[in-house]
Design a protein that fits this description.
Helices cover 76% and strands 4% of the residues. With 287 residues, it is mainly α. The protein has a single domain, classed as MetI-like fold, CATH 1.10.3720.10. The longest helix has 35 residues. It is globular and about 80 Å long.
Length: 287
């Protein structure tokens, strides 16, 4: 017997069927470590001949991070500033590159592969080697450009300096976003551009009136992905600091580093919820 289903329910069922694989994997392999890390962050680990003992400490390590540890808060703010600068820059560059790669020309498949290669060979040693080899001191290489940027107001100077100093990182993390945006741009009906062209709209006007509005939900999805990707970056200041405190026996070995990780996770979740709220707003507006 055929089961009658609405289009909305059928679409939801297809989405949940794809998502079910991740849910099953999360329940089998991730849920227990997450719960255990929460227990560790609220306890002091004592290792002895009898094994590992958990001494409940409550929120002691959380308050220690903010009230006693003089390095955690600056590291956290540095990481958040890095995410705040990098996310919009990566998304914007990914959009521009996607617009460049959507055209019909010979060799476009090769160019798309080149831009996606960083995602395939992504690893800590690789990115560290590239950053160490290809980082540029613009104060020496381009003194005029450096002087011009230094003269800008702080609100413009900081993002410009970030791009100049982290150009390889920005390009390195834009591979997945380029492909996602490329698909979104290709889904826009050519008839819209044709009608706008007949009405005398320029390429610049078509970008602001057609391309950007239609890709805005996808841009926000890319922003969500980018925040998560940058937050998990091993070279991130707060991640490096958390890793350095993992074996501090005075603070219960993994206990303090786990508490810091939970604080960092909570802050990232808040940022993701804000972006998700904006995404839902644009989805309602589009409907």
């Amino acid at each position: 017997m055929k089961i009658k289903m609405t289009k909305k329910r059928r679409t939801a069922l297809i989405g949940y069927s794809f998502l079910s694989l991740w849910i099953i994997g999360f329940l089998l392999f991730t849920l227990y470590p997450v719960i255990l890390s929460g227990v560790i962050s609220l306890s002091k680990l004592e290792m002895g001949l009898g094994g590992i003992k958990y001494k409940f400490t409550g929120l002691e390590f959380f308050t220690y991070a903010f009230q006693t540890d003089s390095q955690f808060t600056p590291k956290l703010l540095e990481s958040l500033a890095f995410i705040g600068y990098a996310t919009p820059i990566i998304v914007i560059i990914a959009l521009l590159l996607a617009l460049m790669l959507k055209g019909e020309y010979k060799g476009r498949t090769i160019f798309r592969t080149i831009f996606f290669m960083p995602v395939v060979i992504m690893s800590g040693p690789v990115i560290s080697g590239l950053l160490g080899k290809y980082s540029v001191d613009f104060s020496e290489a381009s003194p005029a450009l450096f002087t011009f940027i230094e003269a800008l107001p702080e609100v413009f100077r900081s993002p410009c300096m970030f791009v100049m100093e982290n150009l390889v990182t920005v390009l390195w993390y834009s591979g997945v976003q380029i492909l996602i945006l490329l698909v979104a741009i290709q889904r826009i009906s050519p008839e819209l551009y044709e009608a706008a062209s007949i009405d005398g709209a320029s390429g610049w006007e078509m970008f602001w009136k057609i391309t950007l509005p239609y890709t805005m939900p996808t841009l926000l999805v890319c922003a969500l992905y980018t925040v998560i990707e940058l937050a998990n970056d091993s070279t991130n200041a707060v991640n490096t600091y958390i890793a350095s405190r993992m074996f501090d026996h005075k603070l219960g070995y993994y206990s303090y580093s786990t508490a810091m990780a939970w604080i960092y996770t909570a802050v990232i979740v808040v940022i993701l919820l804000l972006i998700f709220g904006v995404l839902k707003f644009f989805q309602r507006k589009e409907r």
